[in-house]
Structure prediction request, 114 residues.
Amino acid sequence: MDCREAERKMSHFIQRELTEDETAEFLEHIRCCSACRRELETNFFLLEGLRVLDTDSDDFDGKRAMERELRHAFLRLRRARLRRKLRYVMDALTGAGVAVAGLLMFRILYWSVA
Prediction:
């Protein structure tokens, strides 16, 4: 992802509208590009600051809120990848269980005939 694409996706990232793959690419770019990270801080401060103003809250630290959101985004990605791996393992185990059950049924039927 280049800087221009990252800039286009910043508000979508802040509003959690990116897909898992887009989020991963965006986070990788933000981790490597200090200019885009500063731009994200500015956008985050503006968008989240306006949201906090609507709630009449006086407690807003834009930089800390952005860092927290980045950590949460990394955790969401990690969890999604783990769920995908677990789903794959469960599918494989289910398939293996069906195969074993089929073999057992075959042996029972074969032995009962013999």
Observations:
- The CA atoms of residues 107 and 113 lie 10 Å apart.
